[in-house]
Specification:
The chain is an all-alpha fold. The longest helix has 27 residues. The protein has one domain: HPT domain (Four Helix Bundle (Hemerythrin (Met), subunit A)), CATH 1.20.120.160. It is 84% helix and 0% strand. The radius of gyration is 14 Å and the shape is elongated. Helix 1 packs across helix 2.
Length: 110
């Protein structure tokens, strides 16, 4: 069992399955909105605001148990602008899809 699946189960024990399902929906909407905006900010070289957005998403991802995703957001949050690449955004998208698949599996199992 993955760490992310364990985290979702632990959250459900504390909060309830319904609350975690709702949090997953909120996280999905937040991710969709933020990923587009973050790309805009990075293309505009607005690293300060991209870092603020990354901080918010890092915290949200960590709270949902998506620690690898949180780590990638941390890279954006603390990366000096010259070291930031779009590869990090691509990795974020990949890790989000992986986390989403685990979350969907958890939702179906219940």
């Amino acid at each position: 069992m993955s760490d992310q699946l364990k985290s979702l189960r632990s959250l459900a024990e504390i909060l309830s399955r319904e609350v975690v399902a709702e949090l997953l929906q909120i996280f999905e909407r937040q991710y969709s909105t933020t990923s587009v905006k973050m790309l805009e900010l990075l293309s505009e070289r607005d690293f300060k605001n991209a870092g603020f957005m990354a901080h918010t998403m890092k915290s949200s991802a960590a709270n949902m148990g998506a620690t690898e995703l949180a780590s990638l957001y941390r890279e954006i949050e603390y990366s000096p602008e010259k070291n930031l690449s779009l590869d990090t955004i691509k990795k974020i998208d990949e890790r989000y899809l992986f986390f989403r698949a685990i979350a969907d599996e958890w939702l179906r199992s219940g």
